[in-house]
Here is the input.
Amino acid sequence: MSPDRISRTAPRARSIRVSPPPFQRFLDQHRDHVWRYLVAAVGRQAADDCFQETFLAALRAYPRLRPDSDLRAWVLTIAHRKAMDHHRARARAPVPVGAAPDAGAWQDAEPDGEVWARVAALPGKQRTALLLRYAGDLSHAQVAAALGCSEEAARRSAHEGLKTLRLEITP
Amino acid sequence: MTTTPLTPPTADPSDAAAAAARFAAAAAPEADVAYTVLDTPVGRVLAAGTAHGLVRLAYEDGGEDEDTILDRLAARVSPRILEAPARLDPVRRELDEYFEGRRTQFELPIDWSLVAGFGRRVLEATAAIPFGGTSTYTQVAALAGSPRGSRAAGSALGANPLPIVVPCHRVLRTGGGLGGYTGGLGRKETLLRIEGVLL
Here is the structure.
């Protein structure tokens, strides 16, 4: 159960919701998590474009959302797809000779930029699991739902990611 | 060495707030409902509009708080609601003119989505009462097709989703008593004073 489902909407949760909350409230409640996730996933520079695309996609799909949906897991799933799109577009774009490798997305962020740059360099599943779990603050179950895998697989990916990081940071 | 879970990355919350503000401004035309809060001489008023027109005005300290008003709009009109002050500029302008004594008739398009049936007929009859004039619960009930429905007309007026613009403050008791007002009787008196009905 995500913590924000029992925060601001709690006093009215007893009455049956027939629609998702007003989009403005959804935006205000989830913008920090989405922003933090995107900064970790694509870097500060690209985060704003991905943020705009994430919430625009959310706004367009919003009326079709089930009223009892887990909104934070849902919007971070969209943010994850936008981050993937961003990386794919970058991979296709011509890279100037001598340009920094992809893992440099975090070089502009301090002071924890180093460890998150290492996260960015992890293999896909480990990277995604760690980003959603620790930058997006989702539970393993929510990560699993976002990625369409089992909770066990999400937990394992995150665990292996942490293991790899620890090996790299303290050899 | 023990496992240390990753601490979340540092990200400035004001950057997130700024990104959200840019989003709300850019996506405003796509929202089904735009709203803002206006400062008026009768207090803070939440104004909400759709592509069809003004759909809701509500005194912020009235029967419902802002969250409740927006929840109801989400359920009854659309959840695609954004705070988009620029889309309410015509409402702000006409209300300013009204309170400055330069406007006696609102020309804003109205979206009647929140009212239907007898209630809507009562409010449409009320919308036709001119500036400076008054009517009674019995009269608007009769105009709405129910001469004996003054009590039901009172309920419909109490639930008016568009106070000020649909001038329910111009409906008084037969015999001249002020009757009630959802925003508080003080406001009803203020509005009637602006219109020269009360001294």
